[in-house]
């Protein structure tokens, strides 16, 4: 599975939750539980997420086609808070094509977009029509990264790290992600 559109991605998500996808890591109950929780988070942001008006304006003013590639996985907690906003923003302009890639599937481009040597997701790559990268973002907003690094520095257990990040995302409500994207669009 090289890439998929939003509807294919959400259908894949549903198949996981229905037990139709049993390959690793979804054969592990913990990963299945993370995925179920992430589905709930994504649904909430799709219903309640507010888009930055200035960012929407910038995206609507794009006159040259762009290809947005979003590398992710359904089990990823950060992705659950990011993907709904990326999808909603991509829908603001028909010149934007959004493709989602599963990080752990053959054909994923993640090895070209490592974060400190790791395959951290989500990763958003915005490309022009010549397939040149205009912008690479991810795996989380800078302020969330600071929360993550602080939690690691405190040597918190992984569950506590996840809780700290989830609390940050719930408070931030997609604002930081959109401000970081707006910086890119304001410069181009």
Question: Secondary-structure map with pairings?
Answer:
Layout: H1 6-17, H2 29-48, H3 53-60, E1 66-72, H4 77-90, E2 96-102, E3 123-127, E4 133-137, H5 142-153, H6 158-172, H7 175-187
Parallel strand pairs: 1-2
Antiparallel strand pairs: 1-3, 3-4
Helix pairs in contact: 1-2, 2-4, 3-7, 5-6
Overview of the structural elements:
This protein has seven helices and four strands, in the order H-H-H-E-H-E-E-E-H-H-H. The two termini are 32 Å apart. The chain has a single domain, classed as Glutaredoxin (3-Layer(aba) Sandwich), CATH 3.40.30. The chain is 50% helix and 13% strand. 29% of the residues are buried. The longest helix is centred in the first third of the chain and has 20 residues, at 29-48. Helix 3 runs parallel beside helix 7 and helix 5 (142-153) runs antiparallel to helix 6 (158-172).
List keywords for this structure.
7 helices; globular; alpha+beta; 4-stranded mixed beta sheet; 188 residues; Glutaredoxin
In short:
The chain is built from seven helices and four strands. It has about 190 residues and is an alpha+beta fold. It has one domain (about 5-135, about 180-185): Glutaredoxin, CATH 3.40.30.10.
């Amino acid at each position: 599975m090289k890439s998929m559109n939003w509807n294919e991605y959400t259908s894949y998500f549903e198949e996981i939750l229905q037990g139709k996808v049993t390959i690793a890591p979804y054969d592990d109950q913990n990963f299945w539980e993370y995925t179920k929780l992430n589905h709930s988070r994504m649904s909430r942001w799709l219903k309640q997420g507010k888009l930055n008006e200035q960012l929407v304006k910038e995206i609507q003013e794009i006159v040259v086609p762009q290809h947005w590639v979003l590398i992710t996985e359904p089990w990823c907690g950060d992705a659950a808070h990011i993907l709904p906003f990326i999808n909603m923003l991509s829908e603001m302009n028909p010149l934007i094509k959004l493709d989602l890639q599963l990080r752990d599937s053959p054909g994923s481009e993640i090895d070209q977009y490592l974060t400190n040597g790791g395959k951290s997701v989500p990763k958003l790559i915005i490309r022009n029509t010549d397939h040149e990268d205009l912008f690479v973002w991810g795996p989380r907003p800078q302020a969330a990264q600071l929360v993550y690094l602080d939690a690691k520095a405190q040597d918190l257990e992984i569950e506590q790290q996840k809780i700290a990040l989830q609390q940050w995302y719930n408070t931030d409500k997609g604002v930081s992600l959109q401000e970081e994207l707006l910086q890119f669009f304001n410069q181009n």
